Amino acid sequence: MIIDGVEGSLTNIDPIQIESISILKDGAASIYGARAGNGVLLVTTKRGIEQKPTITLNTSYTMQGVTNMVKTASSGQMSQMYREAHLNAGLPEDTAPFSAEDVEKYFAGNDPAYPSSDWYSFVFRDWAPLQNHNLSIRGGSEKIKYMGFFGYQNQGTMIRRNGGDYSRFNIQSNIDAKITSRLSLSIDLFAAYENRKFAGRPLSAGRSGAWQDLYGTRPWYPTTLPDPTKLAYGGLDVGSVALSTNMDVWGYQLNRDKDLRGAISLAYDVPFIEGLQAKALVNYRDWQGYSKYFRKPYTFYTYNQAADLYTQAGAIWSSAYDSESVNFNGQLTQQYSLNYDRLFKGAHHVTALVLFESIDYTGNNLSATRDGFLTPAIEQLFAGSASSQTNSGSASETGRASVIGRINYGYKDKYLLETILRADASAKFPDGKRWGYFPSVSLGWVISQEDFMKNMSAVDFLKLRGSYGSSGNDAVGNFQYLAGYNISGMYIWGDRIVNGLSPTGMANPLLTWEKMTIYNGGLDFSFLRRMVYGSLEAFYRMRDGIPATRAASIPSTFGATTPIENINSLNDRGFELSLGTAGNKGNFTYDISANISWSRAKWDHYEEPEYTDPDQKRQSQRSGQWTDRNFGYVSDGLFTSQEEINSLPYTYTALGGNASLRPGDVKYKDMNGDGVLDWKDQQEIGKGDMPHWFYGLTGFFAYRNFDFTALFQGAFGYSTSINFAYDSDTKYKLRWTEASNDPQALVPRLGGSSSNDWNSDYRIRNTFYLRLKNASLGYTLPKQWTKKAGIEKLRLTVSSTNLFTLSSLSKYYIDPEVPGGNTDAYYPQQRTISFGLNLSF
Amino acid sequence: MLTAGLLGCLPSCVDSVLDKKPLDIISDDIVWDDPNLVDAYLASQYANTNIFELERSGDGEYWDNVGGILNIGLISDESGNTAWSVTNPFRYKTGGLNISGGLLEWWERPYAIIRNLNVLIEKLPESSGEPDFIASRVSEARFLRAFNYFAMVKRYGGVPLMTKALPLDAPREELYPTRNSEQEIYDFVISEVDAIEEALKGTTEFGRSTQGAALALKCRAALYAGSIARFGTVQLNGLLGIPQAQASTYYQKAYDAAKKIGECGYALYNADEDKAVNFRNIFLKKRNSEIIFVEQHDYNQNVWRWGFFNCPKPHGYDAGMSTVPYLEMAEEFEYADGRPGTLDRNAIQQGLWSMEELWGGKEPRFFATLYTNETPWKGGYVDFHHGLIGGDGVLYEDKQQAWNGTPAWGNQYTGENNFGTGFGVLKLLEESSTENIDERSGTDCIVFRYGEVLLNLAEAAFELDRIGEALEAVNQIRDRAGVARRTSIDRDAIRHERKVELAYEGHRYWDVRRWRIAVSELSKPGSALRYILDYNTRKYKLQVLPDYDGTTTPPRFYEQNYYLPITLTRTGANPNLVENPGY
């Protein structure tokens, strides 16, 4: 991510600040940095332009909803699932958590002692608001051009009560001044302030989070108790999802981040040498993060209606806890360059660039915690008890330097050549191994500029290009080339606490850059005045010297963390095709294009032991294989009868025999026919959970004052592993029951054998999807009307994201873009609808 | 001018950007000469030896890691299945221990610890420190190393014996070692202790390895070796097992070590009048006379979570009662007058019983080790009742029901209606603290105590045919416990005493394995007890629930499980390792 020439990140920029984004994928990307091997996103922010000042105001209000989410179970469903799990394990009816009458009463729902609470609606709202407002001013004269921007965004969460929000302020000022006829100056200032305050229970996927609370909160507990001062127990260790997601009850996580950037650049047209320009850029980025986690104690109750008795069901924490930390980071980037750009004899266009860049990073952090607060009413550290206080702090620094040379030659815009040589050095490597040299060459042939093509009016543009590029990557921890000890851990001896000293691991004094080489070829074309246009591209990329340890190949009896060495290598290959058509018919303009791409990676060398067992080698060896293979058992539906189990010609050795299997358990195949079901029967299953095939369709239509844009995007040919970890409505509907005895039910017998959890293709489903990612309709008020009010342009928009999805997983209520491994518990993909207004005058 | 300036500052710019120093690494050359840093290095190896805390392996995500202290109880016949065991021991307890391993693994971490200790043992003597300092620290390191090898040999049998830290370019046979035999490892542990115990006399700081700790390790290791010789078989050409003829030599070593510990000044804790209170206090009164070696905890800094996991309700996190003793375990405790504690299952399920009638007269260790219905706790009492017989004679079984203000259920359940087995573990619970809410306990975890040494002495003496001494040792334990003395002793009586005295301290699983009785003892289903309160009389109707762990998945221990598997991953990485038989 390069923003205005300097490495940065896009997470805290308002899109209105961006002038253009280019994506560089081939050898040309090498110019932009070490670590450009995965491509570069080149972002340029808006600058001043020579025009009379224009003030633009944008405002929009968005409602965020959910695309697909697994629904929570009702009390009838959940109680029945508990009962089944208990009875299926062979446990007696006497100790069953619910009797059959209990389950019926829950389903019937007309007995107040058998309620079914809808915790989802109680805690989450259907639409969460997001608003974005910004004001910018742009203008300039020949001597000075300016752009000023101020933006504000506020986003709420799905949580109804005290769920917290995110707000961001952006301020930017870009000024370009021509000081003399030869010297120009730019001063850019950028500031982004972000505030996040959310309930302390994490909303991210995984255990101990709000989603686990949501599906775990039992629906047979009421959401509120008659006494409003008593918090209602929901069956969880933390009370209920309503309590753990409420900032006033559990506590909160607060983050305040500041990102300040200032840049000054000078460009000087060197006299006496036409076309030579010297440039200097200094950019300093100062970003700080303040983080606070404050947690409060609370008690929750159950209510026995018959006895009119409140019983304390539990309490969590005995006193409040506060943990705060601050990070300070600085990044100083300096770029000095000489650029030569000249057209000789009207035909030979030569440019040359020499650039020196250095980046210096520093970081500092400080943290402190206390608990034992006398009262949770004061939320600052000083109110905690000093006996439990902890504090810590640390600092780090690193840096990078590069020298880049580039030469471009173009002959009559027909034959194009570009060569780049980069020399990069990183402080992460030891002296003598710091510098890496990365050359690149690109060639282009604009066939449509050839004389013999000039007659073919049907061909607007046809270009053939190819490139070879290389770049380096230094993604390792700092100082891996030094061995030593650091302070970690502690132990109590006698009455004192002793800090521990541990070795940092073995060092590699020869550690150096990982090298990426990319070969790329492409054809760009446009025919019949853009009635057909597009491009076809293919690439092959090799990564060499990927840092890895020999831990996998050296046995653990060695006892030390083996040093990181540049030993692994990987290759990637893929292609991309895009086709489009554009044109206009009277007042109607259109531009439609579609694209499809495929890529896949393979390990060339992967450091691993030399397997001797042929099955282990087949399953575990990675060198020479695709990187995303998955091995597991091959399934054959579920058992439907006890006879089927008894007549099984092989035993589940890994379980210790077939005795614990029952109808409804997963039937695995004995693939090697040896009468025994064990690890040797595992085969390659599924197709990897990151898609290899992506496709999309964009359309832009304009008719008079209306415009409409749509982006469809999708993927296919990949697998999703569907694993319902929690008792939900979907799990209830998809489970195997004795009554239905469906051998293809997605959820095997509840309370079933532990073999049902083995990694197999039983739960893997082939996935494809097509999603209307973006659709936006805009209307610009006719100029005659607006000019009267002094307004240059007034445009109204209605847009949406993820409005409509077609996927093979919708019958399971799962979103096809689900993050791996967490089918039912993560912050769901959002479907949003927004209304916006932009005004310029 | 610009160009000149550019070229001029280039080299210095580059250097300042690239020559960075690590701000958090201490270099090797200063560590060994500084006694504080040597101690810090040693402290870190103590901290890494997670198995001090009831065989916790340190693996897994947060709760699995922290909850690992429960596994050693759950895997034996001391406890039934609970919510925690879903993640680790339960599937192995029911017959699922196969070549993928996963139960009580202790291989990768100890080899890292052993390497670090080997580095110290090699480098410290070459440094400029004081000879006494060097001798004591090297001895401590050798103790830790021996302790870790003992932990490995009781799991896997013979393992590769690494006594030097190898460089990466060591010869292939050293980098890919073969397994040393089980006997060699036991001999190593015993000989290391013999070599270091004198030098450890000077270490007195609590929590460090002392002479007593080293001797206790030797006593336990020699006893284990002796039982494996006497009851086990030699397999894999001598790689596993110890020849029968040598059983006595090992028992003799255990006996000698136990006797020597007796001369070190340790004594059974016996300070309180009330024998039940006294037994509880062995574990709560820090640094008492019986403690030989502990991992210390402090409520604020180095905590663990025994109390948090095991205490009765009320409880933050809706947890507690994470170890559920079987009814059979409760029956294992005798009556104070020495009668066996087995209940007449038919009789107790008839009529109504008060707690005094049911449990009255049991030995004090029963009341100190287990809690059950009406055990006093934090000013109230533990309420296990699951069902109420109302004044009208009707049985109310639903949570929401009540009769005349008395709810149908007590509060001692986790989750929906999990009353467990009707018992919980009281040992090591600190009633006066708020560990049930604060998610941490500050109690020390005892690794060696004098009570165990006496039981080791009894067993060794018995196996050496010194019946009188065995009887005397067992009676010392029984006197302190408040149970009637025995007049005669046999092997089963010693084993019973061990099971009851050392319950929930991480011994039972290893004991049934080394006695080679696990195939029968750990394949028995266990029962639970249900209490139903009778409103009128305030007594209880009792119900015995057999097959607590379910009929489809009862506990199952197979012959090959006497040795844990080396696992596919390790034999794959090092083909010179021979897998244990049966996997």
SSE inventory with pairings:
The complex is a heterodimer of chains A (841) and B (583).
Chain A lengths: L1 E2 L2 E2 L10 E7 L15 E6 L5 E16 L8 H14 L11 H9 L10 H5 L4 E13 L3 E13 L7 E15 L4 E17 L10 H7 L14 E2 L8 H4 L6 E19 L6 E20 L2 E7 L4 E8 L4 E24 L3 E24 L13 E27 L3 E12 L8 E12 L4 H4 L4 E15 L11 E9 L2 E8 L10 E14 L4 E18 L14 E22 L2 E18 L8 H7 L10 E2 L2 E4 L3 H5 L4 E2 L13 E3 L7 E2 L5 E2 L8 E11 L2 E16 L7 H6 L29 E17 L2 H6 L4 E15 L22 E11 L1
Parallel strand pairs in A: 1-4, 10-13, 29-31
Antiparallel strand pairs in A: 1-2, 3-4, 5-6, 5-37, 6-7, 7-8, 8-9, 9-11, 11-12, 12-15, 13-14, 15-16, 16-17, 17-18, 18-19, 19-20, 20-23, 21-22, 23-24, 24-25, 25-26, 26-33, 27-32, 28-30, 33-34, 34-35, 35-36, 36-37
Helix pairs in contact in A: 1-2
Chain B lengths: L1 H17 L9 H4 L3 H14 L13 H5 L4 H4 L14 H5 L14 H16 L7 H26 L15 H4 L6 H15 L14 H21 L15 H16 L12 H10 L6 E5 L10 H5 L16 H6 L12 H4 L3 E2 L1 H5 L4 H6 E2 L4 E2 L2 E2 L6 E2 L5 E2 L5 E2 L2 E2 L16 E2 L9 H4 L6 E5 H14 L3 H15 L9 H11 L6 H7 L3 H4 L6 E7 L5 E6 L22 H6 L10
Parallel strand pairs in B: 6-12
Antiparallel strand pairs in B: 1-11, 2-13, 3-10, 4-5, 6-7, 8-9, 12-13
Helix pairs in contact in B: 3-7, 3-8, 7-8, 8-10, 8-11, 10-11, 11-12, 11-20, 12-20, 20-21, 20-22
In short:
The complex is a heterodimer of chains A (841) and B (583). With 841 residues, chain A is mainly β. Chain A has 10 helices and 37 strands.
- The protein's oligomeric status is heterodimer
Shape of chain A: globular
Helix content of chain B: 40-55%
Strand content of chain A: over 45%
| Main sheet properties of chain B | 5 strands, mixed
What can you tell me about this protein's structure?
The complex is a heterodimer of chains A (841) and B (583). Chain A is mainly β. Among the domains of chain A are: 65-73 and 628-840, no CATH class; 75-108, no CATH class; 142-333 and 366-380, no CATH class. Chain A is built from ten helices and 37 strands. Chain A has a 22-stranded antiparallel barrel. A four-stranded mixed β-sheet of chain A has the order 2-1-4-3, with no helix packed on it. In chain A, α1 packs antiparallel against α2. The longest helix of chain A is centred in the N-terminal third of the chain and has 14 residues, at 75-88. The mean pLDDT of chain A is 90. By secondary structure, chain B is α+β, with helices and mostly antiparallel strands. Chain B has two domains: 31-296 and 564-573, Alpha Horseshoe (Serine Threonine Protein Phosphatase 5, Tetratricopeptide repeat), CATH 1.25.40; 306-443 and 525-545, no CATH class. In chain B, β8 and β9 (406-407) form a beta hairpin. The chains are: A mainly beta (841), B alpha+beta (583).
